[in-house]
Design goal:
30% of the residues lie in helices and 19% in strands. It is of the alpha/beta class. The chain contains ten helices and 21 strands. Strands 1, 2, 12, 13, 14, 15 and 21 form a seven-stranded mixed beta sheet that branches. A four-stranded parallel beta sheet has the order 9-8-10-11, sandwiched between helices. Strands 3-7-4 form a three-stranded antiparallel beta sheet. It is globular.
Amino acid sequence: MDYDVIVIGSGLAGVAAAINAAKTKKVAVIRKGYGATALCSGTFDIAGRTGKRGRPFKDFVSIPQGIGHILENEKQHPYSILSMAFTGDRFNEFITMVNTIGEEFFERLRETGIHYKGSWENNMLLPTQHGAFKATSFCQSSMFPGNLAKLMGRTILFIGFEKTPIHNRTRAEFLRDILSKYGFLSFKDVLYINVDIQSLGLRWNGHDFISLAGIMDDMDNARRIAASIREIVDKQDYDHIFIQPVMGIKNYEDVSKLFSDTFGDALSELVADSPSAPGLRLQYALDRMLAQHGVAVIDGEASCSESPDTIKTVGVSHKDGSKSTFAANSFILATGKFISNGLTKNKTWQESIFGLPAFIGDQPVKDAFAMKYLTDDPLDEQALFSMGVKVDNSLRPVDEDGAVVYKNLYAAGSVLSGYNYIYDKTGMGTALLTGSKAGIFSAG
């Protein structure tokens, strides 16, 4: 036997599964590349919506309230499935589990050099690069001072790095307008200034903020840019500064400390678009976490031939054209949904490695036409994004009759059905909780 547990996928769910299984077992992760976690915004959603319709921005601040709504109304949601293991007060026991798993995970992240801040009680409101805002539970520490709930009625200064000021100005003014539209007290004033990176002798294309973050990984460059910003803002009357998410990638810990030492809590990063430097920061931190826990990483694309009821091996096709086979006692599927090709369609939709049937809620998907599961109302839930593998209370995939397909296969993260990470704002929470529990279940 090569390993006790093999995890397929190295995003948040896969890493959470691997490090929990690695507490007692020999574990390997198979991955063909980075998926949705590396593209994420740098925020960590636990629960962000308490209702099904309308625009409930002012109603989804409470995280326990959002979780309570799910446990009461969304029986196929992974939160509800995990909560079925509790025999007492499901709500309070689930909240305790969320806090316990979450605190342990964030401590492990801190050990890799990336800090998340937030609350288990209330979501914060953070501005995005689009000029909009989002409610989220936790964020990277460089974003945390930008909680809009604490900045209403104040003067905000947006620092851009574009060659012309129009993009920065438009986004800043749009944010002010949209806050007013949704009933929030807006800013006293909005200012916008651009920093000319090229005048510092640094070359970038003016819009690729990942490349600028890479430039900032060099501390000499970061100091020059921070000093340039300091010189500009000292001439302005402001309460808080927002900059693009560019505080380094691989050297984020040192760069963010530099900016914190220079500006204190008066400056913060915006929530990132995709692809993003904050997403890469998180993914690289997860890679370091795997190494710290002694988890082997196997690069290549996994496949599996048909098995009766127990998986014994998976094949791996490597980028150099070679192939390998690995055996394990248990396997964890954490391949994601659409971005990483975790779900594919032929005559209908199915999971791509083991051929597991796809579900929307508890209903098997019979039609391969994706538009059938979308509506023309952008505020609708959009059933397509809740498509995935259906599991039992132990996170083992089941078929249309509810029978476990493989006794030693578990699933975690966005490959699961029953929740909509875009709509209900539970994406990272579901990945962390189901990943952690799948790792525990797989280790026996």
